[in-house]
Amino acid sequence: MTNRPLIVAPSILGADLGRIEAEAKRIQESGAEWVHVDIMDGHFVPNISFGVNMVRTLRRLMGEATLDVHLMIEQPDRYANEFIEAGADCLNIHLEARHQSARTLASIREKGCRTGLALNPATLLKHAVPLLPLCDQLLCMTVNPGFGGQPFLSEVLPKIREAREIILRQNVQVDISVDGGINNETAAQCVASGANILVSGSYLFSQPDLTKAVTAMRSAATAANVSG
């Protein structure tokens, strides 16, 4: 359970990229609060997705929409500024990447951008705890990063629960985001455990009506938060 605002963030990775303008409009009209952008370099994860130009394009197409950019790249410190200049509102960097996480987070925050720290499923939460004061959000990956459409890893739920307890104990204002295998059922499980930002690509974009899908996910998450 969480007292943080619930946010649904469709992941552009699951969209029809051949119709990017139409898909951007669909997201805007869906009522989703954010749009999530996965950046993969083929090194940190075994896949290549987008670069700075996608963020720049979405910024142009989506106006003031919040762009939540997830850097699944080896050296996020080298490229963070380019993504901020392109229009990212939040940059999620991985604890496991080759950089000094505290320095990268501080640099991102100094530029007026929200900071996110992402953890792979196998990464222990204790390694992220000292960095929480530098974070606006903690991204708990619920699949191994790299490809969309993977099944949800329920073993991450205790990590989410523990993270929320630590955040409350430390009295820091940190959101918990989840990404990977998020549908209405798993969204509810994550929110009941303490998450409040729901990133969903394949599931949301596979639904015939994106607006109804976003509304249904938010309803399932809200019900879980009340009962959780």
Task: Please describe the structure with a list of short key phrases separated by commas or semicolons.
single chain; 228 residues; alpha/beta; TIM Barrel; eight-stranded parallel sheet; 8 strands; 39% helix; globular
Describe the structure.
α3 runs parallel beside α4 (101-110) and α6 runs parallel beside α8. The chain has an 8-stranded parallel sheet. 39% of the residues lie in helices and 19% in strands. It starts with 6 loop residues before the first strand and ends with a helix. It has a single domain (7-227), classed as Aldolase class I (TIM Barrel, Alpha-Beta Barrel). The protein is globular, with a radius of gyration of 16 Å. β7, α6 and β8 (197-200) form a beta-alpha-beta unit. The longest helix is centred in the last third of the chain and has 18 residues, at 210-227. It has helices at 20-30, 52-62, 76-86, 101-110, 157-170, 184-193, 202-206, 210-227, and strands at residues 7-10, 34-40, 66-72, 90-94, 114-119, 137-141, 175-179, 197-200. The protein is built from 8 helices and 8 strands. The mean pLDDT is 96. With 228 residues, the protein is α/β, with parallel strands linked by helices.
Number of domains: 1
Q: Could you tell me the mean pLDDT?
A: 96
Point out poorly predicted stretches: none
Ends distance: 5 Å
Number of strands: 8
Q: What's the gyration radius in Å?
A: 16 Å
Percentage of residues assigned to helices: 25-40%
SSE order, one letter for each helix or strand: EHEHEHEHEEHEHEHH
User: Beta-sheet strand percentage?
Assistant: 15-25%
At the first level of CATH, the class is: Alpha Beta
Shape: globular
List the strand order in the largest sheet: 1-8-7-6-5-4-3-2
Oligomer category: single chain
* CATH H-tier superfamily: Aldolase class I
**What is the structural class?**
alpha/beta
Contiguous helical run count: 8
CATH topology, by name, is TIM Barrel
CATH architecture: Alpha-Beta Barrel
Main sheet specs: 8 strands, parallel
